[in-house]
Amino acid sequence: MGFIDRLRSRTGRRDREDRSERSRTDGQSEEPQTDGQRGELRTDGGSDVRTRGGLSRLKHSDAVQAVPFWLPPALLMGWFVYGAVGWNLLISLTDWSGLSQPDYTNLTLEMYTQMPNDPSFVAAFRNTVVLLVAFTVVSLVIGLVLAILVDQNIRFENTLRTIYLLPMALSFVVTAIFWSWMYNPSTGTINVVLSTIGLDFLTMDWIGDPRTRLAAIIFALTWQFSGYAMVVYLAGLRAIPDSHYEAAKVDGAGSLRMYWRVIVPQLSASTTSAAVVLMVFALKAFDFIFIMFGDNPGRSADILAVMMFRVAFSRTQWAYGAAVATILFLMALSVVAPYLYLQYKRGDL
Amino acid sequence: MREDSSVSRRRYVQLAGGVGVLALAGCTEDEDPDEIDTGNGADDADDTGDSDSEGDLEIVHWWTAGGEEQALNALLDGFEEAYPEHSVENNPAPGGAGAAIDAAIQTRVIDQDPPSTFQIWPGEAVRPYLEADALESIDDVWEDEDAYVDGVIDAAAPDGDLVVAPINIHRLNNLFYNVDVVEDAGIDPTDAENPEDLLDLLEAADDAGYVGLAQQTQEPWGILQFWEMVFLGQYGADTYEQFLAGDAESLESEIADSLELVERISEFHNEDAGTVAWDEANADVITGDAAFHHNGDWAAGEYQGADGFEYGENWEYIPFPGTEGIYTMVMDGFVYPANNPTPEATEAFVSYCTTADAQERFNPHKGSIPPRTDVETDGFPPFLQDQMADFEASDEQTVTISHGSGLEPARADQVQEAFAVFTDNWDVDETTQELIGIF
């Protein structure tokens, strides 16, 4: 059955109410038609429909009947999102720069071929990949550990959950500014705490030193988003029946072994969905870096999103900026597409 | 009963939706209705005479906080007094000292829908607009060209025609210092005759237990503007102009030398230079932790805002060592965009910006000096009066890369990137080659 049918059966009661109400207000003429529809739905097409010909079948197909639902958003998305993506791709094939109109007559891949020779692009690409992988993995691990700890029927569970999730509600602008205060090598919290507990040798010029800059940014972002991973994992943990825990205990597994062999493998759906969202956040770390360093963060913290802005708006090299944007889009797509495919295979879509 | 509750729920949703729509409508009502009426100004009671056919003067700028906002309001008040027939639609694009305005203006210029006038740095910053024929000459509306020094006229007319009306000038070649700190360290800043001498001063301050030079390296413009001053101080204005003209290759050894000095001076920065903004670094001078600070004279605004920190008593400045007689200008100005929606109002406004009245109203609030040299000094604080005297007596005026006027935006941003790398690795050779490679 198609989605309309499922929708109908799910809202069956309301449907009947609506219909009786409508027949009261609209008069009798409505009655036979709705009855016919309902009868048809019950028989579910079959040979009867085929004999009536293509037009009628088309008219009664789910896709056509659902037109009012999917067409307006599809048009809006198609124009504003995919239209813009397509136009961006087109611009990246020109050599548009400056403040005059682009010239679409001579389309080449020149903007893409010059990328590997641009040290600025190479650095930004490398940093983006490092940020993407490190931030996602660390956030997932921390989120999982937090979720398992919070799931132990402890006191103040709700409070703790809120505390861990709260940083996500803050804007990047806010967190960037107060992390740069905390990272201050002479007065910042981090170095002050490290030297009070006798770990002076660990104090560093965290975001001044190019060697630790990217790591410092990743740490701050992890702090902000591991709470999100925790919530996703917590939902996953709650979905696992108690019997699995009990069975593992009966079989003599210790806690560590039980989680590693029985529980964590069942969280793969949570892992993929949290990972996809986190990776997309990582690609959007623009605000955080732009607030700290402006549009020139240096080779050690430059990411593609910042480079795109710099090239397009500070240098008016629109075509090159569009090419960088396309690369960024492909990276996001390579993260999201396998996930969507997986969901499709699993029948969740 | 069930049906009752369902109906009331529906009613509730309808009501909530209605309230939402009303709220949205209420929000949009703030939009200036005049905008829709453009071209039909007769509806507007304020409009009289010539401007009947025009809308308001839409002015886009990034002055939205503190003294800057006061300065702009003073300017607009003066304009409306002088030209009561024109009214102003103030449309700020704040953020990032011009980073946000770029995006807003550039797209509008490409779409041939520019505002009446917008803020921009004079000099090479207008190059992309000139190449797109997006600016009209303002030769005819400019009042008294004689009241300006040559350096200002050159920056206002990058291609020979005047296109930007400068409204203010900040000076970049200042070296500010805390008087108590230098006295305690036993040094006399006026001894420094060239940038190398500065190194001795900083060493002495460091020996006395102070931070030598309060600096920020988090964003690259701090070191870029410092290098510009060192280069200017070491080799003079002509060599610096040669670099701006694109002849970096034959200046290889000079560039390398100056970068090396900048690198040696970086040893005397505050420890947290890589993590702070310029005003946080500058606060070290006010608190007496640091001896010197190099910056544009907007840094003086911080001193004037600090309690019990007086000019001449607690803080002082000298021209950056080696740049005496030079006035390094950081200017803002307004232009007359082509395809102008309000030609008459824009002409009036640009013309007004070039008058002594406009510059006298604007600059005391902004903490800058007027581009004209015939403006009364009475309304200015003592520090700015000294700067105005320096400006009038200056032999040469130069512009800067770090603040837009020196190089066209694409090149200037590449120079910024080179210095972002320099503050990471302090590699003199690499940065020298990078700078040469830009041209």
General description of the model:
The complex is a heterodimer of chains A (349) and B (439). Chain A is mostly helical and 349 residues long. Chain A has 2 domains: 63 residues, no CATH class; 235 residues, Orthogonal Bundle (MetI-like fold), CATH 1.10.3720.10. Chain A has 19 helices and no strands. Chain A is flat. Chain A starts with a helix and ends with a helix. The N terminus of chain A is likely disordered. With 439 residues, chain B is an alpha/beta fold. Chain B folds into 2 domains: 189 residues, Periplasmic binding protein-like II (D-Maltodextrin-Binding Protein, domain 2); 193 residues, Periplasmic binding protein-like II (D-Maltodextrin-Binding Protein, domain 2, 3-Layer(aba) Sandwich), CATH 3.40.190.10. Chain B has 17 helices and 10 strands. In chain B, strands 1, 2, 3, 4, 9 and 10 form a 6-stranded mixed sheet that branches. In chain B, strands 6-7-5-8 form a 4-stranded mixed sheet. In chain B, helix 3 runs antiparallel to helix 14, helix 9 runs antiparallel to helix 10 and helix 10 crosses helix 17. The relative contact order of chain B is 0.16. Chains A and B meet through helix 18 of A and helix 4, helix 5 and helix 16 of B.
